[in-house]
Amino acid sequence: MNEQKSIEEFALAYLPSLEDYLRIPTISAQNKGIRKTVDWVKQVFKDLNADTVEEWTDQGGNPVVFAELKGNSNQTVLFYNHYDVQPPEPLAEWRTEPFEPTVVDGKLIARGVADDKGELMYRLTALRWLKDHGGFPVNIKFFIEGGEEVGSPHVGDYVKAHRDRLTADACIWETGGKNEADHFQVIAGLKGIVSFDLHVKTADADIHSSLAAYIDNAAWRLVRALSSLTDDKHRVLVDGFYDGIEPLDEASENAIADMDFDGDKIKKTYGLKRPFTSDDPKRAVVTAPTITINGLSAGYEGEGVKTIIPKEAKAKLDCRLLPGQDPKEIAQLIQAQLDKNGFSDVQLHYNLGEDAFHSDLNDTHLQLAKSVAEQVYGAGKVRFVPMMPGGGPAKFFVDALHLPVILIGVNYAGSGPHAPNENIRLHDYQQGVAYLIQLLRAYAQPKAQ
């Protein structure tokens, strides 16, 4: 039996010992399951005989678990993960119990299995195998937070306060995996995000709709304000919105050209009923900032009929941003644009923001990540991605620690993070364990320095 096959068989056999992690409803938005989850994470590192297992609480928020394991070389790899997950609702759309890991047709289904508990599990599996087969090739550190799903409000403070403890040669971030063409992706960055609410109030109470002939309607007011922010091509019409965006370098441009994009498969995966909003969606997913209405609420939304003029209306929105766009500045520009467009009564409330970043695709650690991936997943079946459309607090690590950040994982295009029936494929999990073991071995070599 070759080593990769042996590792993959071990990964599948070891998986049940970690599944209790998925059974804990660690919902940071509802402050549920935090203590139990922190204890589980700490214990699993103690079982690996980690040299250091600490719980950091000095900067507030949910605890950070820091673990350190000494390796057989002078290279150090820092892993980032988060232990909190999204709420499981809508429950009626789940085919299995969301917090009872269940295998169906070769897929492990559970809330958080793709984002991000399963990512930590496959990394722990790789460590367990390495521990029993000669030890760790490199020094390993883990930073595992519990507030990512509510915007990682304290991560920047923790990174700054513990900068000396987090020093490393490279950081391997959470998430990643295979695209819609089933090609493995080595991702070098994340888009930024700003999340905000809009609110408008036009009266002190809801009013009978028979008076709509002369009384304004908060719902219409908000809808018109929202539509003033984009054109019919979905380009953002906010003055200064695109200013300062950093141009991509040649390596990133080449990577975008080589990226896969199967439009028909994407439409089928999500059951899309409308055409794409971009003429070049492959490029747009990396290079286009966005403004998105996440939800709208106004007036009566229950069963039956209630004919009213709503007194107020609310909307939740986010923008996905590029390097060079500051989240707080973008929020200010949007409020200024609403004022300019005649909607100064529509007020913006800032929720959270995270900066975009991308690592240099020519960095040795990224190049090694791609070359090792080609050995495990097959030549021609690996793609560089300059930035994925999701967000995260990685820029804090880049700025404070000055290291390349690499996103690799065991998801696939149908994993459905944040959605009902979130899942990963068992074979991807097994391959991911084998790949990570080989990658850590490669980082231990002098060429990684």
Automatic annotation (TrEMBL):
Q: Where is the Peptidase M20 dimerisation domain?
A: 189-342
Sample GO molecular function, one term: metal ion binding
Q: So which domain of life are we looking at? A: Bacteria
Task: List the InterPro entries.
Answer: Cyt/Met_Dipeptidase, Peptidase_M20, Peptidase_M20_dimer
Alphabetical GO biological process terms? proteolysis
Q: Which UniProt keywords apply?
A: Hydrolase, Metal-binding, Protease
Record-linked SUPFAM superfamilies: Zn-dependent exopeptidases
PANTHER family per record: BETA-ALA-HIS DIPEPTIDASE, DI- AND TRIPEPTIDASE DUG2-RELATED
Protein name per its UniProtKB record: M20/M25/M40 family metallo-hydrolase
